[in-house]
């Protein structure tokens, strides 16, 4: 197992290097002069030159890349050109709302999707299975922004059960935090639930037809034990793959939902950075997201090795 983990870690190093090079190069592939693009059309030559010096664009490429990479490893991601603040501070401030939304949505998706998928697989090709699949298709097909607006209209405007917009930190007021996150996390969680339900159902249908499942039933094991201990464990590898991709994608995939519910997360920070051509923020976010995908892919591979010993060999 240790050899497998070491091999996967070593394989991730070249990917991290490529992500760093691509992220840094973005400032050099912007059409025209990056400093002029940042300063705007009305900027004077002196202002453009000041920006170029502040960003180190007057130095050779390799020198700039080495300095930028050294600062990244030291935890210094630079300073935002628009906010005039540390990018690390901006990312930390935006991280709590995004992570809260992503993991609450994942909790909802797993809590509903796996039991529904197991139920649909167990009752395959029956009325129960068809009903679950109708819910799954609807959940996957409905756009998040439309669903978010419907939730706001129903539960915030008409019933006044939850706030329509905004975010409250869990450290400040936990009950209010849950109320502010209820509608956004449900909006994102329903689409995730639909995907997990379909994947779990397909895997369960395949596994439940295997000989060892019939053997387990013939021994007199309870159906719950057969379904969860024997069938679902064998059927969980595709689900683990999907969940790993969902976790990695949720952090950046909640941009629309954050916009609908006015949540000050990383998604809105990225949109503002693109609109304002704040390239240092875009660079830092690209590195962060690239490393995030690498880490979650690594964790998914380790989960494979734990669930299926054959993977380790």
Keywords summarizing the entry:
single chain; 313 residues; mainly alpha; MetI-like fold; 13 helices; 76% helix; 0% strand; globular
Summarize the structure.
With 313 residues, this protein is an all-alpha fold. It is built from 13 helices and no strands.
Structure description:
The protein has a domain at 96-312: MetI-like fold (Orthogonal Bundle). It has helices spanning 2-25, 34-39, 45-54, 61-73, 87-122, 127-141, 144-158, 174-207, 211-218, 223-253, 255-260, 266-276, 279-307. Helix 1 packs antiparallel against helix 13 (279-307). The longest helix has 36 residues, at 87-122. Helices cover 76% and strands 0% of the residues. By secondary structure, it is mostly helical. The radius of gyration is 24 Å and the shape is globular.
